[in-house]
Fold this sequence. Notes:
The structure holds 3 protein chains of 3 kinds. Chain A is an alpha/beta fold. Chain A is 38% helix and 22% strand. Chain A has helices at residues 17-28, 42-55, 65-78, 88-93, 95-104, 131-136, 152-169, 179-183, 250-265, 268-271, 292-305, 323-330, 346-354, 373-384; strands at residues 11-16, 30-35, 58-61, 81-86, 108-116, 122-126, 145-147, 172-178, 185-190, 234-236, 274-277, 284-288, 310-315, 317-319, 335-339, 359-363. The longest helix of chain A is centred in the middle third of the chain and has 18 residues, at 152-169. Chain A is globular. The mean pLDDT of chain A is 97. Chain C has helices at 28-42, 61-64, 77-87, 99-105, 107-116, 161-168, 181-193, 207-213, 219-229, 262-274; strands at residues 49-53, 68-71, 92-98, 121-126, 172-177, 198-203, 230-232, 249-256. The longest helix of chain C is centred in the N-terminal third of the chain and has 15 residues, at 28-42. The N and C termini of chain C lie far apart (48 Å). The mean pLDDT of chain C is 95. The interface between A and C is large, with 56 and 49 residues.
Amino acid sequence: MKADPRGVLTGTHFIDGDHACCEGALAAGVRFAAGYPITPSTEVVERFASRVPTVGGVFIQMEDELAASIALQGAVWGGAKAFTVTSGPGFSLMMEHIGYAVMTETPCVFVNVQRGGPSTGLPTLPAQADMMQARWGSHGDYEIIALSPNSPQECFDLTVHAFNLSEQYRVPVMFMMDEVVGHMTEKVVIPPADQIDVVPRRHTKKSVEDYLPYATNGDGVPEMAHAGEGYKFHVTGLTHDEHGYPNMTPPTQDKLLRRLQSKILNAAEQIALNEEKDLEDADVVVVSYGITSRVAQRAIDMAHERGLKVGKFRMKTVWPFPDKRIREIATHVKAFVVPELNLGQMSREVERAVGGRAKTFGVPHAGGSVHRPQDILKVILEAAR
Amino acid sequence: MAAKGRVSIIVERCKACGFCVEFCPTKVLALSSAFNSKGYHPPHVVNGEKCSGCDLCGMYCPDFAIYGFKTKDGEAKKEAENEG
Amino acid sequence: MSVATINPVEPFLRSDRMPHIWCPGCGIGTTVNCFARAIVDSKIDLNTVSVVSGIGCTGRVAGYVKFDSFHTTHGRAIPFATGLKLANPKLNVVVYSGDGDLSAIGGNHLIHAARRNLDIKVVCVNNLIYAMTGGQTAPTTPEHALTSTSPYGAAEPSFNLPHLVEAAGAVYVARWTTFHVRQLTRSMQEMFAKKGFCFIEIISPCPTLYQRRNKMGDGLDTMKFYKEVSKVKNGAPTSELGLSMTGEITVGKFVDRDRPDYETMQRAQLVQTLGDRYVDPTETTCSCSDM
């Protein structure tokens, strides 16, 4: 399905990542947002509040992030595409409801414009320290999809993609921006609506009598219905059966959880979006994501100037982690270098996937600014030795 | 004199709370000495001819196990149905 | 020849899930009877009714009623209902939850929804305790009552919920007990006919925990107690509706007023500022599928 032109601000713009993210949501068909102000994410919903009354939709500033993170899910079940936007402290508050979206298979997007943490931390300065939280933040076993844009343009493109993934797999998608990408102003080209593909709600075509809310075919993703259509379905966060009724027994738990897990993991390769360059004869591969990937590019160029064979692996989808691809690359390189604006989060995943076939060097940073290219180059040189 | 109403009881849902017995305005019901499969004593009709079909029992029952309804005029006196 | 009838509540039950888990003498089922009858009498389109509940014994109502129903997270039924209603204004959204869920963890959402005058209907079953988790103190537990977390007697002032929601802005506030089935049904019907934030508190027995721990008998004893100590005082000032362990339970309809609901206010403001640039949200909110 193509994007609804009413929400597409076709043209060439000079806007920051936060604003581009909002336009991405509108282009994807989002007509409901519930938000709560938190630096550096607030501009996303400020723009949405300003745009949506002339596009057609609803913005409500809720009383806290707990309310925002569940109000958007009510809107989804009412028939809309919906999202919310936050940063670290709000992301922490939203964790229970991210779990609820996973368990009830509510398609939606949670945007986290990451800032320095923990706690109140550095409200106006960048970090990438919520990456593990995006994966494990809610209680219980589950799989999640997380994306990491590195430019305002990607804040538009990948937001559309995030909504498409959420509808395809009926899972909440974590859109992991950072303060620099959110607040940097760059050229953003928004194409005409008929050039933007959107995945529609996977609405059931079954009759009221035949519809089972959590029965699946094929790809493990159930079809959805909306309130008010006569299906009279039940949705619960309790472990449930195909009727959606609570069924709190070990066999039901096993069946449900494994399905929720496998619907994502079985599709991991389709979901994976990575940018690979110069890997064929690389000695060292720099694995990066978000704003750090732009500094890393500079460091890689500097390494090339020194005659080193350095490849680039940029993750646009960070979760599910590209285990298989990293393992493959590990068989023919000497080392991986993982710069990130945290004290070591995705570097652990790289190390795990590499499984000792090569060395892994992190380039940690507590946050508050971006790396200097020479900081990453230093580790590349060490890794190449 | 024909009863104006009757009750219908789903024995297996009853938890013998006693609301219907207590609040029936014409004292149609009493808890029986029979058991349902959960071990509760469900109510039974002891004064069927007094039933007016007001359905207060149905409104009170927390277990959706009983309801009253008005019968057609002139019907012969009948025992209440016990279903299930 | 008897008239073939079915229990008036049966069409609204997920009969395949009966019998339910509520204890003998628990009043929640009684409130559902009133709810079902009020829905019938209100002649609401059944497809538009959405029931949203939180966590707790009363929270299980969503799972037993045959409407589009949502069993959400603890305390957050109201914000879920907010999103549901605003995305799909033709829905009749009912929040059906307990006193702890709505006034403790959910307290913030309760007051903001009332302030906004969102067009949702809140049924609050108040059994004065956190029942599902084993009988802990709730904000509504009367002073001196014994609970598992106040083993020497609750020593906090308890919430006067009608007063709270009236102050926050509710346009319809009533309180009944599970003894007052006819009045409760009528109140629920009035609630369905009214636009704006409506709140009905229903004092209900928890024989297994509240009544048993406080040696107040079983469900039936409690119903007789309600009959004895309740006084109908329609229009009474909500400040006088506090509850104690054995004192008078004032019931009635206390607030029935009119003020613009949230959607009306939003539309008015946006139309005033944007004129004909304003696009009605109902034109596009439900357009996310290719149906």
